[in-house]
Sequence to fold (128 residues):
Amino acid sequence: FHRTTQTMARTLFETYGGFAQISKVVMAFYDKALDSDILGPYFDDIDMRQLIDHQTKFIASVMGGPASFSNDALREVHAGLNIDRPSFEEMARVLAETLAEFNMKAEDVSTVMAQIEARAPVIITVGS
Fold:
């Protein structure tokens, strides 16, 4: 098997297994989130299957995959959820931990988390 320079141009999405692997990461993330005293209540009365599908596409998009979410769409989805900075930070911590558990390199976790943090202003809806 011969690797060419094509490998260097791979996105994180491709490097870490595409939608199939990202959906596993997202499911593991929500297992942790639902167990969290801070995050769990946000998911009461939520269609988790639909949420996992959307979150998989969102994480894929921040990893360079074939999906995109505008800031307006993110703002609209999170508008009524009363998300504050501490809840956002807990979500980010749990996501980073989950990415690392799926053997994502630390620098790649940092890259993904920078993309998440960049969207904080449209996700945090309380006290911002």
Observations:
- Helices lie at 12-15, 18-35, 48-62, 71-78, 85-101, 106-118, 120-123.
- DSSP finds seven helices and no strands in the chain.
- The two ends are 52 Å apart (CA to CA).
- Confidence is low (pLDDT under 50) at residues 1-7.
